[in-house]
Design goal:
single chain; 138 residues; mainly alpha; Arp2/3 complex 21 kDa subunit ARPC3; globular; CbiM; cobalt; transmembrane helix; transport
């Protein structure tokens, strides 16, 4: 609803509070978390949404694909980040990337689908209650 630039700023603030107050993620992984969750995810989602709207795809389908692929892209990015940090002793970064992608990214597909569906439901509730003008996402 606000674009990837705003999400980058808000996401860093949220992740910083999460690391400091909830001890989840930590300060040592803040940069990696910020990159995957506040840069890659929002920009992938924004691009998917804009492409879908340019192709005249239904708004609900566009939002679903936007949220699902944005969410999933963070997991794929994290898999590559983990592969660089923890390379496989025999097959190196490529082998580690295949392992992390096959376990971490694939298992997150159902979660990404659920979050895509939840995004559509919440967006429709916001619009139906006039809490946000629909032309904001045009």
């Amino acid at each position: 609803m606000f674009g990837p630039g705003v999400m980058a700023v808000l996401g860093v603030i949220v992740l910083l509070f999460q690391a400091l107050l909830l001890a989840h993620g930590g300060l040592t992984t803040l940069g990696a978390n910020c990159f995957s969750m506040t840069i890659v995810g929002p920009f992938v989602g924004f691009a998917v949404y804009k492409v879908c709207r340019a192709l005249k795809v239904n708004r609900s389908v566009s939002l679903f694909l936007c949220a699902m692929l944005a969410d999933w892209s963070t997991y794929v990015t994290t898999s590559f980040q983990l592969a660089v940090v923890f390379p496989d002793p025999s097959s190196g970064v490529v082998g580690a990337a295949i392992k992390f992608l096959s376990i971490y990214a694939i298992t997150q597909i159902p979660l990404a689908i659920a979050e895509g569906l939840l995004t559509v439901v919440v967006y429709n509730l916001v619009i139906s209650n006039n809490l946000w003008k629909e032309n904001q996402l045009a």
